[in-house]
Structures are given as C-alpha cells and as structure tokens.
C-alpha cells in the first residue's frame, strides 16, 4: 500500500499499562476520516480508553495549518471530549515522524513520553509531578528550547474535571476535562523534538495555493477584526450583547466601566502580537505585565469571561485570575462558570482576591474546592442549588448561548464536547454589531437572510448550523484553524489537500467526510451515553427566552438533514451510505 504524501504515514500507540509502543499506518483511516478529529474519533469509537492527539494532512503545510485535535472520553460528560489546539507541538510531532499519538492504559507512577525523531521512551515524571503547567514546560525545555511540550498542571494531576492540556504558556486544549484523563493515566507530559521533513505531493502547486489562501485570509473580515480586537475585545463583547454574567444573571451595572478599564489596561500593556505556526491571523495579544510576558488569546472569550462572568472590575486582578487558570491548566470557560456558581452559594465574593484562593482550593481539591472540582452539575447536585449546564453536565461556553437560537440548537445536539466546536463565527453572534455582514453571510451560505437573526427559528438557520458544524469538522480534521478555514472558500482547501496528498478531493467529498465523522460522534453518544434527549439539560430548562416547541421543531429538522430518525438515531441507510456499517451493529 502506497503512503499518501503529506501524512507521515504512522500513528504511534503508547500503552502505559505495559510500557510498550507500536505504530499503525495512518492510511488505514485517512481516506474516510481525513485526520485530526476524524481519525481520533474513529480510534476512540473502538477504544474508549484512548486519549488521541491527532494532526491532519494539512498540518504544517498551509497558512494556519498549526492544529491538532485531542479526543478522549470526557470525565465530565462520559461522552466524547474533543478540543483543538495550535501552537508548535502539532507540527513538531509531524516532523518527528508521527501523524498522531494514541495513549492507552495507565501507568502506576507518574511518567512522561519522550519522542525524538521517532525514538520513543517512557521516562519518570516523579520530579515534575506537583508542578503547574508553566513550571512543567519551563523545566522540560530548560536545556532544549526546541522541545515542544504537551502537559498537565496540578489540576489535571488532581482530576479536576475541567482541567485542560497545556501546549505552551498560551495554547491549551481546554474543554472537556482531557487534562484529568491525562492525570488519571499518570501521564504528566509528552515532549517532542522533530527534525524530519514531511514532503507534499506537489510543492510548486502547494506554494501557489499557499499564497492564495494567505491572501484570502488577510483580506477577510476576520483579519481586519483581529487588527484592533486585541485591545477592543472586551468592549466589543458588550456591543455584541452577549450575556456574560454567569448562570441566571442577566446584567451587571459595572460592565461598561469594567470594559473600558480592561481596554485601557490592554493598551498600556500590550507589546505585540503572536501567532501559532504559520498563521497570518496572529490572534494572540502579547501582554507584558510586572516583568512577565504572556500572550492572551483574543479569538475566544477567556478574558471577557474572567471580566464579566466573574465581575472583575479591576483588570489587574482579572489578569492574575487569567494567569492563575492558565498556569494551572484550567479550562477558563468552565472555571469561571463554576466560580460564578460558587458565588451564588456565598462561597466566594466575586471581584476580590477570594477568587484566586478558591481557584487554589479547586486545583488542590481542598474543602469546598473538592466538590467544585467535580464540575457544575455534580456541585449543584451536592449543594441542592440548580445550575445551568449543557449536555452531559458540561459547563456552558463562555457566554450564555440561549438568546441565540441557532447556537442553542448547536449546543443541544453537540456530541463532541463544547459547542464552540460547531459555531465559531455564527452570524447571529455578531448581528448586533455587523448587521450587513451577518445578513450577507446568511444569504450567501443558505440563501435566506433569516438565518442571521438571533431570534429566528427558521429552517434556514438549521441548515446553516449543519453546514457550519461540517466546516468545523473539516477544519479540525485537516489540521487547520477553524477561524482561518471559515475565511476562505472550501475549494481552496480541497486544492491544498490535493497538492499535499496527491489525492483529488471534491468539496462535496469533504462534506461527506464531515457527515461521516459527525454521525460517528452521534453513534458514540448512543453507545456510551444518553444522546436521545438533546434538550433535557438544565441549559434549556426554565429558560424563558427559548421557545421549547420551536426549538424541538428545529431539532427534528436538524436530525432529518443529518439522516437521523426523529429520536436522533442515525438511520441504517445513512450509516450504509457513509460507509461505516462495518463499525456498528445495525
Ligand atoms: S487564528 Fe489564532 S488560534 Fe487560530 S491558528 Fe491563527 S493564531 Fe492560532
């Protein structure tokens, strides 16, 4: 069997129970599942103990081709927990000779995996255990700055259900609690040093497509938005009218003032921009404060969540909370939701130093921190005070998605962890500040302006949600940042795939691959959890802003467009058509 260009051709399987490793050919999965999220889901489907780190065929080759997807069973939901990350680790892994790493089993003692150009060893992490993520990265790279690290902090070690995996001081595969999965395996880190070349099929053609993609990205609205987003993002969130105030609250009288203070603070302390490997969007604002330089993620809502959900008027305190979460490897979306919930119980006063103390208690599982570390659903069951959460008990995305009907639908049907794996850049999110652009997108993609309106329950919005989810899956599976993928016609990405792999692929075939991956995610939910009641979580209960009947109807349309029955179960003919009947019992 010939190896497809662009892939290294091998996936590394490490079994920590036996301390052994082996490889499997990537080609076994690549045709049907592309890479990244697709291959990782396919592997997890048959081996739920796996924690898979998978790059895609375009990782390292195209603008924004910096990504890998991390997939395992989420300790919060018991369903798929998936999270994408960028930075340099994914490219280094490919340069070391592996398209991905799949970790199974569990070590008795703390270990880390070292990969040096295909040489693999499992080493003691005894001295690293107990360090936070920043300290771990700094210790491991002290003598070799070229080493790329994926690691957990104390939160992951202690099984905090919303611990992520850190890939640098900035990149975190944050959602789904996958850091706790690493911790349960006693795997502190994976370190990679790769110097091999991975060759594309047609370098000249790829160079020409690279330039076209880059041009498309830098001329996009996204690029223009990021230019000033790095200081304006908190005020912009206010303009978006996103309810960021946590749980059942709708307003915070100091929001405007806090936003202005945050803007001034960022203007004073931002010293530049940074990006993941080969990304022209450069969406990280580099902040220098008190002698420390730290890039802050500007394309997600982490700093706004600290500011608004935690009602932190003082940007210096917000910065310290942000840094504390990041250095401990905590998912800031979940952490802020849990802390806001704790404030309702009187366990912490928001906007004060007590927040930092509570984070420490959560990370080390002291006192009430031990309950809160289990996540918002378990905490609400323990304390008997209702909380808002998504399917399986996962904390909501940074802002409350319920006033946005399409986003509420995407959250309801999600099977791969956080809803941001389906709806980045949804037009209804920015309708309030860029009405024309939102309407133009809705018209362009689904031929109906209604899909742009946050309050609309239109059928076109369901079609938009399906399309958008497919595009996210394609990005996560090709190894491209979804922010970049959405700025550029799919045709160009298909051409890049052909130039890299030598395999022709039509846009429709990419869409079919996304359908296949999405349906496999749903089958995983049905196999391992209760995916039949997508609207049951507390996110939707008692929510006056949502019309439940209309949302039910949208859900039925969504199922139908996916080829699933009225209960959300993929139909036998859909499974057959997608070529995955060999994987499931019909
Ligand atoms: S858009 Fe931002 S997060 Fe995505 S690859 Fe570029 S720099 Fe990284």
UniProtKB/TrEMBL annotation:
Keywords: 4Fe-4S, Iron, Iron-sulfur, Metal-binding, Oxidoreductase, Tungsten. SUPFAM superfamilies: Aldehyde ferredoxin oxidoreductase, C-terminal domains, Aldehyde ferredoxin oxidoreductase, N-terminal domain. One of its GO terms (molecular function) is oxidoreductase activity, acting on the aldehyde or oxo group of donors, iron-sulfur protein as acceptor. This is Aldehyde ferredoxin oxidoreductase N-terminal domain-containing protein. Residues 7-196 form the Aldehyde ferredoxin oxidoreductase N-terminal domain. Belongs to the AOR/FOR family. PANTHER family: ALDEHYDE FERREDOXIN OXIDOREDUCTASE (PTHR30038), TUNGSTEN-CONTAINING GLYCERALDEHYDE-3-PHOSPHATE:FERREDOXIN OXIDOREDUCTASE (PTHR30038:SF7). It comes from Thermococcus profundus. Its cofactor is [4Fe-4S] cluster; tungstopterin.
């Amino acid at each position: 069997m010939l190896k497809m260009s662009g892939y290294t051709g091998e996936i590394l399987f490490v079994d920590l129970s036996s301390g052994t490793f082996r490889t499997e050919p990537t080609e076994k999965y690549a045709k049907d599942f592309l890479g990244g999220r697709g291959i990782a889901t396919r592997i997890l489907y048959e081996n739920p103990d796996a924690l898979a780190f998978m790059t895609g065929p375009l990782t390292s080759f195209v603008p924004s081709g910096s990504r890998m997807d991390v997939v395992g069973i989420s300790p919060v939901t018991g369903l798929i927990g998936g999270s994408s990350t960028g930075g340099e680790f994914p490219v280094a892994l490919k340069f070391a000779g592996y398209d991905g790493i799949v970790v199974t089993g569990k070590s008795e003692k703390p270990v880390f995996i070292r990969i040096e150009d295909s040489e693999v060893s499992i080493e003691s992490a005894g001295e690293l255990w107990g360090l936070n993520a920043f300290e771990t990265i700094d210790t491991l790279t002290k003598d070799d700055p070229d080493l790329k690290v994926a690691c957990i902090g104390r939160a992951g070690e202690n099984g905090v259900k919303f611990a992520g995996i850190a890939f640098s001081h900035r990149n975190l595969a944050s959602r789904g609690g996958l850091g706790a999965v690493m911790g349960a395996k006693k795997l502190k880190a994976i370190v990679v040093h790769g110097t091999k070349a991975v060759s594309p099929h047609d370098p000249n053609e790829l160079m020409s497509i690279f330039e076209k993609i880059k041009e498309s990205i830098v001329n996009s609205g996204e690029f223009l938005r990021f230019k000033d987003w790095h200081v304006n993002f908190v005020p912009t969130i206010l303009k978006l009218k996103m309810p960021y105030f946590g749980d059942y609250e709708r307003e915070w009288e100091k929001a405007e003032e806090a936003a202005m203070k945050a803007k001034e603070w960022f203007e004073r302390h931002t010293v530049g921009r940074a990006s993941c490997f080969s990304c022209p969007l450069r969406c990280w604002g580099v902040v220098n404060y008190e002698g420390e330089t730290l890039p802050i993620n500007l394309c997600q809502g982490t700093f706004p969540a600290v500011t608004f959900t935690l009602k932190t008027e003082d940007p210096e305190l917000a910065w310290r909370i942000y840094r504390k979460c990041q250095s401990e490897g905590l998912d800031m979306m979940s952490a802020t939701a849990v802390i806001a919930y704790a404030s309702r119980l009187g366990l912490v006063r928001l906007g004060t130093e007590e927040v930092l103390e509570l984070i420490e208690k959560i990370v080390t599982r002291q006192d009430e921190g031990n309950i809160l570390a289990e996540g918002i659903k378990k905490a609400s069951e323990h304390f008997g005070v209702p909380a808002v959460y998504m399917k399986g008990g996962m904390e909501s995305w940074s802002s409350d998605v319920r006033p946005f009907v399409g986003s509420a639908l995407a959250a309801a049907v999600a099977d791969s962890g956080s809803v941001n794996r389906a709806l980045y850049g949804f037009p209804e999110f920015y309708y309030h500040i860029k009405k024309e652009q939102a309407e133009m997108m809705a018209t362009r993609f689904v031929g109906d302006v209604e899909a742009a309106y946050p309050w609309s329950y239109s059928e076109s919005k369901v079609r938009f949600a399906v399309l958008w989810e497919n595009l996210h899956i394609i990005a996560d599976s090709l190894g491209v940042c979804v922010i970049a993928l959405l700025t550029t016609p799919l045709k160009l990405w298909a051409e890049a795939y052909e130039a890299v792999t030598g395999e022709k692929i039509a846009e429709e075939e990419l869409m079919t691959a996304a359908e296949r991956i999405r349906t496999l995610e749903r089958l995983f939910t049905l196999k391992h959890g209760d995916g039949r009641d997508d609207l049951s979580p507390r996110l939707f209960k008692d929510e006056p802003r949502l019309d439940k009947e209309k949302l039910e109807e949208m859900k039925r349309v969504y199922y139908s467009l996916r080829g699933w029955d009225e209960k959300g179960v993929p139909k036998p003919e859909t499974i057959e058509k997608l070529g995955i009947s060999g994987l499931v019992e019909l």
